[in-house]
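Dear V.,

Thank you for sending over the compound details. I've combined the ligand you provided, flavin-adenine dinucleotide, with the protein sequence from our construct and run the structure prediction for the complex. I'm sharing the raw inputs here so there's no ambiguity about protonation or stereochemistry in the SMILES, which I know was a concern on your side last time.
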Amino acid sequence: MTATVFERQAPDAAVVSHALAPARQSVFWIEDAPGDRFPRFRGDIECDLAVVGGGYTGLWTALLAKRADPSARVVLLEGRRIGWAASGRNGGFCEASLTHGDENGRTRFGHEFDELQRLGMANLDEIEATIAELGLDAEFERNGAIDLATEAHQVEWLREAADGEEARFLDLEAVQAEVHSPTYLAGLLRTRDSALVHPAKLARALARACEAAGVELFEHSPVEGIGEGTTLYTPEGVVRSKRTALATNVFPSLLKRNRLATVPVYDYVLMTEPLSAAQLASIGWSGRQGLGDSANQFHYYRLTRDNRILFGGYDAVYHYGGRVRERYEDRPATFRRLASHFFTTFPQLEGLTFSHRWAGAIDTCSRFCAFFGTARGGTVAYATGYTGLDLLDGRETERTSLEMVRSRPLPFPPEPAAALGINLTRWSLDRADHREGRRNLFLRTLDAVGLGFDS
Ligand SMILES: Cc1cc2nc3c(=O)[nH]c(=O)nc-3n(C[C@H](O)[C@H](O)[C@H](O)COP(=O)(O)OP(=O)(O)OC[C@H]3O[C@@H](n4cnc5c(N)ncnc54)[C@H](O)[C@@H]3O)c2cc1C
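Below is the predicted structure of the protein with flavin-adenine dinucleotide bound, written out as structure tokens.
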């Protein structure tokens, strides 16, 4: 096997230890976005739409529902705090792709891929327009993104993906002119299909917009069960709703049918201290694009408004049993690996320290992208994306007729098969990254049956 650049050019262990010493286990974004507090739900009420979950899916669903029908009574129930989970702790990459990248989309939904791309771009345009219209303070920056080749075999992948002005191939000189790293061999500059947000500020701003529109929001109000029809039970109350949207992401689904459809995969992130003007000048990056390298196990990184660098990804860890647990968020070996890869990427920043480290669980299904559906005679809809509302209305729309919306991913098997399969896949992907991208028989078989897993 060939070593990757992150192994060939690893920094001194002392550089990594020094950089990680001040990093505390805490989500930078959440600290940086103080939010309003909402009351605990108590009582017994009736409403037109109940939304369970206060992340992006729930917040956008409630906001769009209220905007579509201002007279409707819309109630949102969040088990902890609005935006505390994935929506408040992610990388903030807001991509047009609805299918976790082109290749995944083309393979799985080939016949409607162009339509999905068009809808994805329209979705990103609408997010931008709504943020501007409502004046949401989410630090939205539509700077585009650069996919990077850090190994020779990836250069051709990027050259093949180039497609005109909006996806431009950057050779060695051109990529180095954008961002200076000894690891970059080439790049693909995507100018229109990617933006950055401050994730926690977006969640908090959406909550305020919901409240201003008349949505009733409640925190610390976990829904413990769904009874007859769509009656929802919280520890101190009952919500009798005509329709319910479940936006509970990686947390145990209130619908039994969805429990094996997804698994939580932990993703880890580091945040640096703000860079000085000289440090920033040493890496260029004046275009402030989102960056990501091109291996199966890839890193994603970006600048914040105060010029810190968020650096995450690579290890994607599945914990046996498939549970969401706070103790999985601290993983010293992964943080050391990330810090080491950071200084391989930017050796000119040696001496810079990390202020924060954190992790979060990503809801992964076997086709990597959102899926949708209804239950209880069409009165309960679930979505890990943002089109659940159309399904609840029972309307035939452009979106509900998509194969992507009508089909479901294959379920994961129960333990111990889930852990065995997922870890064998991760091992195979790591091997592929060490063998010029060549996939072994196991991965080729998964590709052929449409099952997958990546970081
Ligand atoms: C470290 C990390 C980096 C990521 N980076 C990116 C990125 O750069 N770009 C990108 O597009 N995606 C990224 N993601 C994924 C992205 O954050 C999620 O897909 C997205 O936030 C999901 O939003 P959501 O509303 O569906 O779920 P969540 O934000 O998880 O919200 C679900 C909410 O439901 C609540 N809930 C659950 N069960 C109940 C219940 N029974 N009763 C009441 N409330 C309940 C939870 O408390 C939670 O607040 C990343 C994720 C992580 C963890």
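A first observation: The chain has a mean pLDDT of 90.

Warm regards,
I. M.
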